[in-house]
Amino acid sequence: MTEQQIQDLITAALAARGTAYAPYSHYTVGAALLVENGDIYCGCNIENASYGATNCAERTAFFKAVSEGWRGFIAIAIAGGMEGHEPVDYAYPCGICRQVMQEFCEPDFRIYVVKNKEDYREYTLSELLPCGFGGTSIQ
Ligand code: THU
User: Fold this and answer.
1) Which residues line ligand 1 (CB under 6 A)?
2) What per-residue confidence (pLDDT) applies to 40?
3) Which of the four, 24, 25, 42, 99, has the lowest number of CB atoms within 10 Å?
């Protein structure tokens, strides 16, 4: 990842928070997923009165891209915080989203958790989901 690619992904994730539908938690999350061809798919969290039907920002981005035929992914940036406020903490992906990443990504897939354009951390999927369960486990 070049610094420009990282900055573009971070900018997209911060912007994607703007369309979050989070009337219950008021915690808005944006995610920006870099596809192997260089395209960026964005996602936001979409809550539901039946809380379990809520979809996280990361999975929204993945499912948009996968539903359009993409399978190879390079990196994702994630930004989350209370509605109307800049993030005060890094927004780490939940366990279900990490498992979805495991399904479609290599162990060196990059995950950027973002407070702002200057303040972010980089991880690999294997760091955030070590010893993960995947398709090869059931072949
Ligand atoms: N959320 C995400 O969008 N991504 C995560 O990885 C963790 C949680 C959302 C779901 C819900 O709308 C809100 O944050 C509070 O849990």
Assistant:
1) 22, 25, 27, 29, 45, 47, 54, 56-58, 93-94, 97
2) 98
3) 24
